[in-house]
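Notes, p. 3: input format for complexes.
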Amino acid sequence: MEEERLNAIDLFAGCGGLSKGFMDAGFDIIVGVDNDQAALNTFVRNHNGAVALNADLSKQETFDEIRRIAGDRKIDVIIAGPPCQGFSLTGPRNFDDERNKLYLAVIRMVKDFQPEGFIIENVPGMATLYKGQIKEEILRRFRKMGYNIDCKILCAADYGVPQMRKRLIFMGVKKKYGDPQFPEAEFTPENYRTCRDAISDLPSREKELGKEEDDYTSPPLTEYQELMRGDCHILYNHVATNHTQMVKDTIALVPEGGNYKDLPPGWGESRKFNEAWTRYDGNKPSRTIDTGHRNHFHYQYNRVPTIRENARLQSFPDDFVFTGTRTQQNRQVGNAVPPLLGQALAKALLKSIGREEEHAE
Ligand SMILES: C[S@@+](CC[C@H](N)C(=O)[O-])C[C@H]1O[C@@H](n2cnc3c(N)ncnc32)[C@H](O)[C@@H]1O
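Output follows (361 residues plus S-adenosylmethionine):
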């Protein structure tokens, strides 16, 4: 008998890191919605026929369009990564402010589709905004709508991602299922995957910048590299940045794991904040990959990581190809939920709604 696959929609999808994890756990992604066309171009290239909808999620007509795309299919799960700029709480319970409209859109969508469960991802700082009142208000609204919901700050490294990336995760399921169950950590600080585990097989690019499509020059050297390569035989997006001699000379002075504080007096004066001139430590997971591309450097080479190296540190498999300008690609990679964390969340959600057996790999 053919297994019944569950349907999900991805709101604020970006290039689709979170939904890639859900796909890998056996979900069908019906539609990914975002208002950044460059990110959607990458999404559609890597999401097996999912519709990419370019629309503003604060608008009513976007709801209607999503409904039309879903047709008579049941939406089992909603996943969302709304940006949280501009949150506001002008008084107790005054969450309906214009500035919270993107979060309110997610709440409305859950109310409308009545999925069995949902996941919302956000930056950890959101938990303590307005002394935690925003978070509490979100929990209260979903509970009122018939969901059991909880939130937790999870670290991606605990789920096999070679990166110390912390994110606030809300997980909700219909009350009949009991409490949502968050994924158990699969790794501990003693066996976290490291930068070296993740990218040591990729060519240095110190002599040439490389091409958007290229050959691997060595076999995979670790089980993680094997996992990321899968059946992929082409090395995509491994193009180095053409740094000025000043940048190369400056970063050459920073030891592995160091930063601007290791520079001699007078060097690197133009960048002097916490993360400036940070060289990764090959024996540790990376710091949080962000949307910029000028502060974090390769643990060994005198350049910033390529898109493919950052994608590996985010646990995107090598056949997940990024499109657009380099700035757009950096934004897509840096904004994403690491697919391995997404997959752990998808499996935990399946377990929470009693569907884990059906979706066993
Ligand atoms: C944190 S990123 C989401 C990352 C995504 N979940 C992933 O795992 O790849 C937030 C996304 O919200 C999108 N966005 C911001 N405002 C929006 C709006 N009004 N309507 C639709 N999308 C919006 C941005 O373009 C961005 O891609």
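The CA atoms of residues 91 and 97 lie 10 Å apart.
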